[in-house]
Amino acid sequence: MPVVVMKFGGTSVGSVERIQAVADRVVRAREAGSDVIVVVSAMGDTTDELSAMALGIAEVPDPRELDMLLTAGERIAMSLLGIALIARGCRAASYTGSQAGIITDTQHGKAKIVEIRPKRVVEALEAGNVVVLAGFQGLSTQYEITTLGRGASDLTAVAMAGAVGADVCEIYTDVDGVYTADPRIVPDARKIAAISYDEMLELAATGAKVLQSRSVEMARRHGVALHVRSAFEDRDGTWVRDDATMEGVLISGAALDADEAKVTIDDVPDRPGVAASIFKALAAEAINVDMIVQNVSHEGTTDMSFTTPLEDLPRLEAVLDALARDIDAVGFSVDDGIAKLSLVGAGMKTHPGVAADMFDVLAGEGINIEMISTSPIRISCVIRKADAERALRAVHDRFGLGSS
Amino acid sequence: MPVVVMKFGGTSVGSVERIQAVADRVVRAREAGSDVIVVVSAMGDTTDELSAMALGIAEVPDPRELDMLLTAGERIAMSLLGIALIARGCRAASYTGSQAGIITDTQHGKAKIVEIRPKRVVEALEAGNVVVLAGFQGLSTQYEITTLGRGASDLTAVAMAGAVGADVCEIYTDVDGVYTADPRIVPDARKIAAISYDEMLELAATGAKVLQSRSVEMARRHGVALHVRSAFEDRDGTWVRDDATMEGVLISGAALDADEAKVTIDDVPDRPGVAASIFKALAAEAINVDMIVQNVSHEGTTDMSFTTPLEDLPRLEAVLDALARDIDAVGFSVDDGIAKLSLVGAGMKTHPGVAADMFDVLAGEGINIEMISTSPIRISCVIRKADAERALRAVHDRFGLGSS
Q1: pLDDT at A298
Q2: Do A83 and B57 touch (CB under 8 A)?
Q3: Where would I find the H helices in A127-212?
Q4: pLDDT tens sequence across B197-222
Q5: How far apart are CA A132 and CA A84, in angstroms?
Q6: CB–CB of A57 and B72 under 8 A?
Q7: What is the rounded distance in angstroms from the CA atom of residue A10 to the CA atom of residue A40?
Q8: Nearest Cα residue to A391 out of A296, A254, A261, A262
Q9: Alpha carbon of B93: minimum distance to chain A alpha carbons (Å)
Q10: B72:A68 CB<8 A
Q11: What residues of A are in the B interface, CB distance below 8 Å?
Q12: How would residue B4 be classed by pLDDT, with cut points 50, 70 and 90?
């Protein structure tokens, strides 16, 4: 029988009523003739509420204990869904990450999946059960309960889909697919019917929040077809798979990321090894760095700029204070008034001139470009946050992404 | 190092503040030089809230899934306590029932402990940790998560104390010990300093709610000394242990149970096997039966009365409706206006006349006795519920149990 993995996020299981609706949907999928694995997140804000309790007890809660605490959220959601399915006469059994054989490394709070041992899940499917599986969690190689990081229920779904050879991993969410741009900003944005892993990766990395890069990467690695669709409607959403790039389509979508800041280190000595020492120190604190620009040297020093997520700023400032002294730099400045506008499309590889067209649109709008970075299928520009939405609408329009 | 097991109930860990207070107390016990295992229940009303969600989804939630759901409660409480201990610089690690090797049979919702495999707990103690342990739960011989029944966190504590050879199992609660009678009814009731397992068993079975019979039985079987004490004060509470009966003390305490009903089956054929068929049918539905009285036969039939917990009544009526037809009995009546007054004391064994004195006190108060049952160390009388508190005060006074 074909195997379908269905993943429902926290909003989709946010109340008893929603769980009942999910159960109805799962029963329909089962009756359509598939073996079904359902992956669930914690209900609504449960994870945040549990975190808040922990932070009410300790400023920095012990990571092992915090993981033990947070995994209670999925346990509640999955067993309630199990109860709802069985009440409908549908055989079902729920399993924690540990029970389902999600084996991780030992990094509490951001564990990586190292292996899936799906024996118990496969046996439950063969016995005629719908398997309900807790997202976001696993068991470490040291037999400790771990969590995989925020939003990682998608990752659980994709990894299990790969391990059991599922035909598709359906990601149910509160939007009905991936759009050419954020419809709240660009009213005529169009739903994308199909997109390649590479394009989806670039879109995810540049601000489209519907899928995490990490999950898309894992789907690509294991050849798992993803189907991003609405938890509340039956229509098809967006397929993400290898053969999904359509000939003749230049640009798949545009995205805006307003959650980064630009950091500039002034008067960095222009000698070998300095850049390495800066970014090694940042990596050691797990600070994410995105675009990096180094200006031409003048009088033996240079300025270096990069972008980093706003949430990493507090840790970054501590690192840079120490570092600026070590490398004789003058100091650093942080600019959180920026946004990153990106265009993504596999067609760019064979169509030069996309970058020039994009710069032309922004110039026509009188918008200054502060940083530029490109990949074979993406162009990103850092601009003022205040100009960002206007810029997104302009490029979306220029490249004909709208539905009109 | 001596090992102490400390068990805290739901009220004692009912809020973040209470958990902080428990952590302070555990740290003091640790600093006093003991290895410590802390057993916790779910916070406050968590178990009831989770049950209510399940009942909002299905009239009869699947028992396996319900157990999975309910165990989330202790998971939350134990990890928060772990976080609080570690924040105080006290090494600690929390373990679920499954992780701690609490192996049970497969009866979801009321599983029995069949074995404790304390290897992981012992290793954690040896590594210098306070072990925080989820009460109420275990792992079945079929590798499924089970719960041990309401109030069974005490049982977890006693069983683990037995398995690791703890010196004492401290039961922290919202009262400061076991009293000669309920102080809300008998103002001069006295705290009992020490009591034997047998006496405590009789008191627990007759309405003193501070300890469950099941836990006391297990403590007796494994020779675990219990210390029932206040979660909010430091004073000694009540010790329960083998050698605790004091010479010369006739009566240890008096208890009232107003949570039972009297059931009478009319005109039961007076022939062999009838009583057996009645009580077998009740046992098959797990209906608890306490006192049983059969009146003298008249014209080939007899009336049979017994007491049963109010909560078992709905199931009981279904069984008896069917049964009354099968055995040609005329019908049955239920009287929920009764209460059971009991006197408990190991000294009764060697002091005849206690029963006569008790009946005399009740007669003097003009209170009618409807049923009587005795054990070597207990006398119980069923009386009208309306008379119960007055009767308790009178016998408490007559046997000199008060603190005056």
Answers
A1: 72
A2: yes
A3: 153-164, 197-205
A4: 989 988 887 777 788 888 999 999 99
A5: 11
A6: no
A7: 7
A8: A254
A9: 7
A10: no
A11: 16, 19-20, 50, 53-54, 56-59, 61-62, 64-66, 68-69, 71-72, 75-76, 78-80, 82-84, 86-87, 92-94, 99, 143
A12: very high
3-class SS of residue B344: strand
Q: For residue B23, what is the nearest residue in chain A, using CA coordinates?
A: A57
pLDDT of residue B189: 92
Least confident of A83-87, A231-235, B124-128, B137-141: A231-235
Q: Which of A361-370, B55-64, B68-77 has the lowest mean pLDDT?
A: A361-370
Beta strands in A231-300 (DSSP E): 238-240, 253-257, 260-269, 292-294
What average pLDDT does this structure show over A287-300? 78
- Predicted pLDDT at B332: 86
Are the CB atoms for B69 and A76 separated by under 8 Å?
Answer: yes
State the pLDDT at residue A268: 81
Query: Is the CB of A57 less than 8 angstroms away from the CB of B16?
Result: yes
B59 vs A93: CB contact, 8 Å cut-off? Answer: no
CA distance A58 to chain B (A): 6
Question: Do the beta carbons of residue A199 and residue A245 sit within 8 Å?
Answer: yes
**Helix, strand, or coil (residue A119):** helix
Answer yes or no: is pLDDT of B89 > 80. yes
CA of B76 vs chain A CAs: smallest distance (Å):
5
Q: Give chain B's domains with CATH numbers.
A: 3-174 (3.40.1160.10)
Place of tokens 């099968």: B326
pTM of the model: 0.83
Q: Helix, strand or coil for residue A242? A: coil
Among residues A341, A388, A103, A101, the alpha carbon closest in space to that of A206 is found at: A341
Distance from CA of A344 to the nearest CA of B (A): 43
Mutate to test the interface with B, among A19, A38, A68 (most CBs of B within 10 A): A68
